[in-house]
């Protein structure tokens, strides 16, 4: 059985070179699929060059930039068809998720359905963030926890390991978010609808190596709205009981 890492990119030409090399230096047998949204900086060309060196590296080129969630949906809908895949890992390209933490994922994915690389459990943390951003993240995760009722601490984490058969059960089109809130909704459906077992593996979230943060007002707005949709789904389920 094989594991595949999905790495979405937009203007990550320099970062993708580093993270791909770091992963394959430690785990040469793992597969990586880069999902690029037509980056104007030539990220796709950089990946194609790396593919000559790394046979387990592949590229999905999307014509338009329509959000992180849509990029993941496109990639997941393709890879879940491969019955030889054991687990699907989501990971950022910018170096904020260290390749060394994959080791714990690969050990625990034998028994756990959903592993979350978590900043908000013992041993986890954030490196070099401004105070306002730390507070925004902490408030956001508490806000989501209250509305969803799920027993996890890092809802917005983008570093995850998911068993393929659970993604195969899930209708990805049910997830309404196209941006970063996709990560919240994905966790909700896996745990709330399919009773996926979950474990939060502590990580130190690092500052991005190159480029600018993708955080925007639109992302924050979507992050405020999406948990309410999930809350009302919980209410509807209660009424049916």
Provide structural commentary.
The protein has 241 residues and is of the alpha/beta class. The chain has a seven-stranded mixed beta sheet with strand order 3-2-1-4-7-5-8, with helices on both faces. It has helices at 13-26, 43-51, 68-79, 102-108, 131-148, 164-169, 182-193, 217-240; strands at residues 2-9, 31-36, 57-61, 85-90, 114-118, 125-126, 160-163, 198-202, 204-205. The protein is globular and about 55 Å long. Helix content is 42%, strand content 18%.
Q: Describe the largest sheet.
A: 7 strands, mixed
Order of helices and strands: EHEHEHEHEEHEHHEEH
Low-confidence stretches: none
Radius of gyration: 17 Å
For the termini, the CA-CA separation is: 39 Å
Secondary-structure-derived class: alpha/beta
What's the arrangement of strands in the largest beta sheet?
A: 3-2-1-4-7-5-8
Shape: globular
Mean pLDDT, rounded to whole units? 90
Helix content: 40-55%
């Amino acid at each position: 059985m094989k594991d595949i890492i999905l790495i979405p990119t937009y203007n990550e030409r320099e970062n993708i070179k580093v993270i791909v090399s770091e992963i394959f230096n430690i785990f040469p047998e793992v597969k990586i699929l880069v999902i690029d949204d037509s980056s104007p900086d030539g990220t796709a060309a950089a990946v194609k060059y790396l593919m000559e060196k790394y046979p387990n590296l592949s590229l999905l080129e999307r014509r338009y930039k329509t959000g992180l969630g849509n990029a993941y949906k496109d990639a997941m809908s393709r890879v879940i068809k491969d019955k030889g895949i054991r687990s699907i890992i989501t990971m950022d390209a910018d170096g904020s998720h260290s390749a060394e933490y994959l080791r714990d994922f690969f050990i625990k994915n034998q028994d756990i359905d959903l592993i979350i690389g978590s900043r908000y459990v013992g041993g986890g943390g954030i490196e070099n963030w401004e105070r306002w951003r730390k507070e925004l993240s902490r408030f956001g995760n508490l806000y989501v926890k209250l509305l969803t009722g799920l027993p996890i601490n890092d809802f917005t984490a983008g570093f995850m390991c998911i068993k393929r058969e659970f993604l195969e059960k899930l209708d990805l089109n049910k997830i309404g978010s196209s941006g970063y809130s996709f990560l919240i909704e994905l966790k909700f459906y896996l745990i709330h609808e399919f009773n996926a077992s979950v474990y939060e593996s502590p990580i130190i979230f690092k500052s991005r190596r190159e480029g600018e943060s993708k955080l925007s007002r639109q992302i924050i707005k979507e992050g405020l709205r999406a948990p309410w949709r999930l809350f009302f789904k919980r209410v509807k389920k209660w009424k049916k009981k």
